[in-house]
Amino acid sequence: MGFANSQNKIIRWVEYRLPVLKWLDAQLIDYPTPKNLNYWWNFGSLAGVMLVVQIVTGIVLAMHYMPHGDYAFDSVEHIMRDVSWGWLLRYLHSNGGSMFFAVVYIHIFRGLYYGSYKAPREILWWFGLIILFLMMMTAFLGYVLPWGQMSFWAATVITSMFSAIPWVGDELVVWLWGGYSVDSPTLTRFYSLHYLFPFLIVGVVFVHLWALHVHGSNSPLGIDIKRPDQDKIPFHPYYTVKDLFGMMVMFFILAVFVFYLPNMLGEVINYEKANPLVTPPHIVPEWYFLPFYAILRAVPDKLGGVIAMGASISIFFVLPWLDVSKVRSAKFRPIYRQFFWIFLGDCIVLGIVGANPPEGTWLLMGRLATAYYFLHLLVIIPLIGKFEKPRPVPEGIGEPVLKDAGAPAKEG
Amino acid sequence: MAESVSSDASTDGAEGETRRDFLYLAAGAMGVAAVAGIAWPLFDQMNPSADVLALASAEIDLSPIELGQRVTAKWRGKPVFIDHRGPEVIEKARDVEVEDLPDPEPDAARVQKPEWLILVGICTHLGCVPFGQKDSDPRGDYGGWFCPCHGSHYDTSGRIRKGPAPRNLEVPEYIFLDDTTIRIG
Ligand code: HEM
Ligand code: FES
Fold it and tell me: Which of A353, B127, B153, B178 would staple A294 via disulfide (CB 3.0–4.6 Å)?
């Protein structure tokens, strides 16, 4: 199959010089994929689609936006009121950011459940984490651009974290700001970087996919596939169609937010222009940063809080070695499976705590949930890996399916 | 590298080698200098520009501020808190065991005239502007300022007493030009 075998003269002329269709065939058409992937495997392609949505809407917003302290806020209002379809483009971009994070978080927890970070996919996992990190930077920088009250104070609080670094901290922050507080020079440089970072993400995505295509996708069974002839199917049409279907569902959800709840995930106070003399009584980041914000506030020490927050993501880089179990999928790991759900619950609790003021019960809950977060990753996971007795793992994908059907286990 | 060269051209001898080594080193050093020379402008351009640096000082007239009133001025884009303190408030600020404070500093070291407390109104934790300038604001457990962002409490001398902030509210550099005018910066 594939276009590369076409007899068309022009295609053959090009293919002889630059075999681009042959490459696409190998990566997207014939590309052998485990036949049992469930819907949790849609989220990678969905993330890719969201990256494109953000870049396209971002580039057209940039045609109307003015990255200067005196004009930024008004230019966003100009986009909302005067620019043709400006409201649509902006709502797509701001809600698109949320959609992108939702999709990527699901994608990551899929990896945690099915053990996709284990050998031989450690580097694939690392590049995913690098993408997450770049996304967080991009979203933070973007959130500053509308220059509302929340933009301004988010920029202040986040950049001030660098002042926790001993010795050079204060100079570093002045360097980041280009002044003695967050001001117009800060906004302009953030805009430059907000434009740059998504394209860095595109580059890292290619490395991520390259690593993926070396050993292929993991699967719900988490086994190494020994008989590709019976356990794998070509990517097209099976998964192109499935990914397209997922895309339609995702766009439906995005449309509900864009058209009916465009400001639900945002903060009203960001429609008030930045005022360096007044901090809003309750400052919170966007929902996708809440768990990390809760971890930052749980530690009653400035440097300690910043370190804990950094560690909460960096730890995932060594997860492939913290989890010593050879079995990938939680399907065959009765103990790990339960702790997976507890950990997910813990992250949600952290998110709720992050949205509330750091006082009384909330503060206590934040501290407990933060402690559990690190306990899970640093102690519970290694212990389970050591002592858990996994259930027997099938030899191939065909096996359990055929067993269910009452047919002999061998031969497809 | 040097090995393969000398075996290829054995007649060259030790002298040729040292000359080549020298050229290597010299070229390498020039390369490093060139990279550093262009890296510095690329880095330094992000520091405050000349016009931002030029706005470094501000004069403030204190005469309209009544006893017990707190007023916010602006300096270098930041809020400056001016507190016209009454005798009771001053007494409260002095009446502490200095050694027991998170960032020990006697009140006397933080003011030039005890009735005028001048502070940079930026929480030393992560840079929010603490509450307390208005009478209706929450002022925290020590009657000074309260930062809502992550819950830091400052006392009537602007010293950190409770919460994540590591240091006391900064006292900017200022001088009294006359009895009721100060210049900050
Ligand atoms: C990784 C992909 C991206 C993410 C996650 C992202 C995220 C965001 C977010 C969260 C905002 C604030 C929205 C608001 O509250 O109004 C924003 C604003 C903005 N972004 Fe992006 N962005 C991405 C890519 C881009 C690209 C490639 C451009 C192209 C220049 C761009 C241009 C802008 C502009 C001009 C604004 C200000 C207008 C506005 O606030 O709606 N973005 N971005
Ligand atoms: S910024 Fe004031 S407590 Fe964090």
Answer: A353
